[in-house]
Every structure is written in structure tokens, then in C-alpha cells.
Amino acid sequence: MHNRQLLLCLWWLMIFTTACKTTKPTTKNSSRSLTEVIRSNPLFTENFSGIYIESVEDKQVIYQQFADHRFIPASNIKIFTLYGALETLNKKIPSFQYLSENDTLWIWGTGDPAFLYDKVVPDSSFAFFLPSRQEKVILYSQTNFMDNRFGAGWAWDDYPYTYQVEKSPFPIYGNRVTFSNSTGNNLTILPVYFAQRTFLDPTLRYGKITRTETDNQFSLATDLRNRQFKTSRPFTYQSGLIAQLLTDTLNRFVQHDVSQRPLAKNSMVVERHLTDELYRQMMQESDNFIAEQLLLVIGGKLTDTLNTHQAIEQLEETLFEEVAENIRWVDGSGLSRYNLLTPRSIAWVLRKLPQTVPLNRLLDLFPAGGVSGSLKGWYGGKDRPYVFAKTGSMSGVYCLSGYLKNKKGQLLIISFMHNNFRGSSQKYKEAMVPVLEWLYEN
């Protein structure tokens, strides 16, 4: 009897000890809890969702799901563009190139997006440069631009919208026309060149502005004469247009170089200081125009040719060599559905970025949850932001990739890629809330 009681006591002691051990928080149990949080929502398990989460400090993979499957990234591709620009351009960006020869001044663009662009501090280096020149003839050449107005896979019928501005070698005013009426009785058009190509159309519905696809004739609804508004529309890039816009803006006669002189090897490059404002506008406001032009600038610096495809090829052979075989990268902005990235490839770039710029500066470039950019209404912390990530969305696509700081100050890399769903992305944004909050707490 004594032995039976002793065995029974030992058995209960073993059960109690085991129970105590299983309630102790461990990495394994934390991972299992995260798994439960994710798998409890059928959106993550019954649809095409890729997830990759990693600790920056110890490089431990916390969770992964379809991490090596390829997804359409939408604007998450801008993370690649950012890394390429930070490494290639460093602290200076070429603004334009010129050559003075026999009383003639030749000008070539470099793709720099900032010239007279009101979304950033406008670059005015060319505006100061040109009036001081003594050459009698000024010729603008576009021979170093060997690209199309749209990227591969862009939607051709999105030409009227400012999220799909055309690419060009010498951007001016963001390659768009701004229509405004600040008082309700004073319609203003900038650049003024387009004023004589703008017409009021009584057949257009309330507030409508249209443009024919192949030229720069704009039609405005008549009610816009009598109410306050401000909006922009892209103009289409045409031979001779940039020379005309430069002439009107800078009061120096600039001609289009019909001889198509190639970019001279002995041309001079005028550079300007590259501030984070340009990167911040691209990342936080998801500015497609800046992203595309930065890739052209990179191409010009690496190959002397403004061409997106060549720029990406050069970057894939150098900076992105480790991940290039597993992805398809075709543009700088993510407008193309031809882009294909894996959550793991995005995490690879996010791991590289803090090695290029200080962490505080890097996090300031990304949208901050509850504070800035595309995350202003999402994923806000109690006291301070804890999610710093780039969103990417288009029909059937919602992605979120970047960094998460947990309550202990530890940094995580996160990449969520959701593809091929129908309807609004709202349900995915909401579904990620408990996942991100769990990562913050645990």
C-alpha cells in the first residue's frame, strides 16, 4: 500500500512539473501562438498570402508562409528602387548635362524628377544656369532617352491619371499640368503653355477634366470656372515640347535639336545635393513618377542611357545578384503586373537597407503607422508608431513590407503579400491588425 501511494505521488509530481514547464513562455510556444493567430483567420489560409517575419537582431525566422512563392508586389517594388538609388546615387543626383561648342549650347536631361515639381522642394539649378549663358543657340537633345513613355505592363487606358505620369528625359512640373481656382473666379493653368490648349466643354459632367490620348488638348467642365479646386493631369511627352516649356518658363529661346546629336562623352554634368525629401515622397506618398524617374537617373549614371530595362539589368547583376534569379523586376513604381517578388526577396532588401543608411533615417523614409503616408489611418501604436512599412495595392493585390519595432525596442522585418482576391483590400488590412499587435506584444 505504501509503495502504491509513493508511486501515485510521484506520478502527480511528474504531471505537475510538466504542466509548469509548458506554461513557461518559450520561443517555440510564442511561434505556435503566432501561428494560431495567423491560421485562425481564413483569409490567410484559404487565399494566396505570402508571409515572412524575421528578427533583425539574431536573423531568426519567426514565421514564414509561401515565402518563396512569387507575388505581384504593386508599390512594394519601390523598396527595391529605394535601395538601388541609395547605393548608386549616394548624396548627389545629376541634374542635367551640357556641352558648349562654337557658340552653341547643347542640353541633355538626366531624368531628375525635381525640376519645378511642387511635391518636393523644386530644383531650380537649371533655372539659374541657363540665363547666365552667353551662347547664341541653345539646343535641347533627347538622344540619351531610349525608353517608352509607359513601362512594360502598364495599363494604356490609365493615361489621364496622375498616378501614371509618362517617363521623360527632362521632367518639368512633374510632367503634369496643374489646374486650380483659388478664389472661385480665377482659373489658373500651370505651365501657362497649356492654357491655349485648354477648352471649356459644357457637355462634361461636374468637375470633369479630360485629355485626348495622343496630344495635349484638355477639356474642362464649365462649372470649374466658378468653384475652388486644385488638381493635376499628365501631359503627353512630344518631340519639341520640353524645349517649348523651357522657353516659356525661363525666357530663353530653347530649340529642339532636330539633328539628334548623341550625348557627348565630354559633356559636363551638373549635380545637386540629393535630400531625403525625394525618397520620402516616393515611399510615404507612393509617388510613381519619382520612382520611375529615379530608375532612369540610375540608368544614366551606370550606362549613359536613360532606359529602365537597362538600369534594372545593371542593378540585378550587381546589388541584387543574390535574389535576381528568383524575381521578375520590370519597373520602378510597381504599376506593372509583370513584377513578381517573393516575401523572402523583399526581406533580403530590408535586411540590406540598414547597412546603407542609419536606422532612424531609414525608418523616417517609410510610412509610419497611424502617422504618415499610406499608413496614416492604420496600425498606430498607443504611444508611438511601431510599424514602418511600404504598402502596395492594386486590384486583387495588397502588400505590406517593412519594419516593426516591438515594445522592447527589438526590430523585426515583415513582409505580407496578398494576391488574387476579389473585392476591397479592407478585409486584409483589418486581418493584419491582430498579427501586428501580437508581434508588438510578444
Architecture overview:
- With about 450 residues, this protein is α+β, with helices and mostly antiparallel strands.
- It folds into 2 domains: about 30-85 and about 295-440, DD-peptidase/beta-lactamase superfamily (Beta-lactamase), CATH 3.40.710.10; about 95-275, no CATH class.
- The protein has 12 helices and 16 strands.
- It has helices at about 1-25, 25-40, 40-45, 80-90, 125-130, 240-250, 275-285, 290-305, 310-315, 345-355, 360-365, 425-440; strands spanning about 50-55, 60-65, 90-100, 105-110, 135-140, 175-180, 185-190, 200, 210, 220, 230-235, 255, 270-275, 385-395, 395-405, 410-420.
- It has a 5-stranded antiparallel β-sheet with strand order 2-1-16-15-14, with helices on both faces. A 5-stranded mixed β-sheet has the order 12-5-4-3-13, with helices on one face.
- Strand 15 and strand 16 form a beta hairpin.
List the helices and strands and how they pair.
Blueprint: H1 2-23, H2 27-39, H3 42-45, E1 48-55, E2 61-65, H4 78-89, E3 92-101, E4 104-109, H5 125-129, E5 137-141, E6 176-181, E7 187-190, E8 198-201, E9 209-211, E10 218-221, E11 229-234, H6 241-250, E12 255-256, E13 268-273, H7 276-284, H8 288-303, H9 308-317, H10 343-356, H11 359-365, E14 387-394, E15 397-405, E16 411-419, H12 426-441
Parallel strand pairs: 4-5, 5-12, 8-10
Antiparallel strand pairs: 1-2, 1-16, 3-4, 3-13, 6-7, 6-11, 9-10, 14-15, 15-16
Helix pairs in contact: 4-8, 4-10, 7-8, 8-9
